[in-house]
Amino acid sequence: MTSLFTGCHSQPPETVEFVDLEKYSGLWYEIAAFPTRFEKGCSNTTAEYQLSPKGYVIVINRCTRETRRTEIKGKAFIVPNSGNARLKVQFFWPFRGDYWIFELADDYSWTVVGSPKRNYLWILARSPEMDEQLYNNIASRIAGKGFDIERLERTFHANK
Fold this sequence. Notes:
This protein is mainly β. It is built from three helices and nine strands. Strands 1-2-3-4-5-6-7-8 form an eight-stranded antiparallel beta barrel.
């Protein structure tokens, strides 16, 4: 039933009010995501964020494909007046994609990020495992924001 109504949301989902980018920096494990061509065949997927002295965020995405560890680096630029909750991520010039932070734990232990058009979504956490009840609560809330949670796929992490 959720997927039936996801197209009915004409307004983008709201983001969190403010993100402390120093607290947000560091390593995040992908818990679940909408499938994307650039993560096809990936496991052990992580994202690492580092503040640059030049005012942007350095993004390093890593995953394992078959037995090989792959990595891509990019930059995330803060959208002005967004409380640091909206960024534009660039892996290949001149293309930039939306990176919006829709939910964030008070202790920065997990987050939900994606695109305002609801075609991308990631649930990230500071550890490779997430409590099942917490995961289900997050999924329920993001379904209420118009995301088709039936598209969410859990990410496998070896050596949890």
